[in-house]
Amino acid sequence: MSENTTEVITGGAVLAIAIGFLGYASQVTGLSTTTERGYPLTASFRSLEGVNVGSDVRLAGVKIGAVTQIALNPQTYRAETTIRVREGVKIPDDSSIVIASEGLLGGNFVEVVPGGSLFYFDPGAEIEDTQGAVSLVSLLMKFVSGSEQ
Predict the structure, then answer these.
(1) Phi and psi for 20 in degrees, rounded to 5?
(2) In terms of Cα–Cα distance, which of 50, 62, 125, 71 is closest to 95?
(3) Mind listing the pLDDT tens digit for each residue in 9-36?
(4) Contact between 118 and 94 (Cβ < 8 Å)
(5) Which residue has better confidence, 106 or 13?
């Protein structure tokens, strides 16, 4: 009888750890069904290379939100992006937004560069000052070929 009890307890502990791991993994990867409260902002980028729905939005290196929607504008051929900023974080209305890299082997994320305005973006506003992703491969090719373009 004690062997069965030990097996049941061990099985239950393994199952609890597996459920905890899956919950943690879903939150880290952005697959969680819980929606964080906040407000949406939009931006239009020339290139969103390396950024997907669920990518981090950071300010001063701190995650303040996530990318919630990406669509191609067929008239301008730009990536129309919607981000959700955490409630309580106010972004000055002269701020810019850029695609930044975590390093040579890291992924890309959206970085908010705050301005100095005393006024803030309203929910649903568009951030007009944007800078798209810089392709590392094209930079290396320019360096190798000696091109200045």
Answers:
(1) -60, -40
(2) 125
(3) 888 888 889 888 887 776 666 555 445 6
(4) no
(5) 13
Give the global pTM. Answer: 0.65
Q: Could you tell me which residues are beta bridge partners of residue 96?
A: 113
Q: Residue 137: which pLDDT band, with cuts at 50, 70 and 90?
A: low
What sign for the dihedral angle of Cα 114, 70, 66, 62? negative
When comparing pLDDT for 74 and 139, which is higher? 74
CA distance 17 to 14: 5
Q: Please give the DSSP secondary-structure letter assigned to residue 33.
A: S
Find tokens 């997907």 and name the residue: 52
In whole angstroms, give the CA distance from residue 52 to residue 79.
Answer: 11
Q: How far apart are CA 113 and CA 100, in angstroms?
A: 11
What is the β-pairing status of strands 108-113 and 56-59? parallel
